Amino acid sequence: MHQYPFEKLEIWELSVTITVKIYEITASFPSEEKFGIVSQIRRASNSVTANIAEGASRLSNKDKARFFQIAYSSLMEVLSFTIVCNRLGFLTLNELNDTRKLIEELSNKLNAYHKKLK
Fold first, then answer.
1. How far apart are the first and last CA of the chain?
2. Please, what sign has the CA dihedral across residues 11, 53, 22, 72?
3. Beta strands of 7-55 (E only): which ranges?
4. Cβ distance 42 to 26 under 8 Å?
5. One CATH from 1.20.210.10, 2.30.30.90, 3.40.1110.10, 1.20.1440.60 for 5-27+38-117
6. Rg (CA), the chain
7. CA 65 to CA 99: how far, in whole Å?
8. pLDDT tens, the chain, 118 aa long
9. Contact criterion met (CB below 8 Å) for 19 and 49
10. Which residue in 99, 5, 103 sits closest to 52, CA to CA?
11. % helix / strand / coil in the chain, to the nearest 5?
């Protein structure tokens, strides 16, 4: 089966891992948060993967860099939500730390990729 360029990127694979983790941990959040923080954090994590995929399909390095910057910003949004969720008691400290490690790894790799394009 044909693989598209974004599917070959380590940063995309890692973003998918984070998104799946976000879906798993938010599944147990209070039902009243379904249309609140659950929806927002899931959309933000999906935005990371989507912007990496879209950026990888762009022809110019300038365009690619712009989408990877947007992906980074969405990743920071995910981090912010996880911190808030921890403080609200929806996320354990272990879940926060595990997610934060993945986010840190991806943010470092996104920054390196972004610098390479510039």
1. 32
2. positive
3. none
4. yes
5. 1.20.1440.60
6. 15
7. 25
8. 989 999 999 999 999 999 999 999 999 999 999 999 999 999 999 999 999 999 999 999 999 999 999 999 999 999 999 999 999 999 999 999 999 999 999 999 999 988 888 7
9. yes
10. 5
11. 85, 0, 15
In the chain, what are the domain boundaries? 5-27+38-117
- How far, rounded to the nearest angstrom, does the alpha carbon of residue 52 sit from its chain's CA centroid? 9
Tell me how far apart the alpha carbons of residues 36 and 51 are, in angstroms, rounded to a whole number: 22
Torsion of CA 39, 52, 21, 93, to 10 degrees: -90
Q: Are 55 and 67 in contact (CB under 8 A)?
A: yes
Surface-to-core class of residue 81, CB atoms within 10 Å of its CB (0-12 exposed, 13-18 middle, 19+ buried): buried
Q: Contact, 46 vs 71, CB < 8 A? A: no
Tokens for 110, please give them.
């996104």
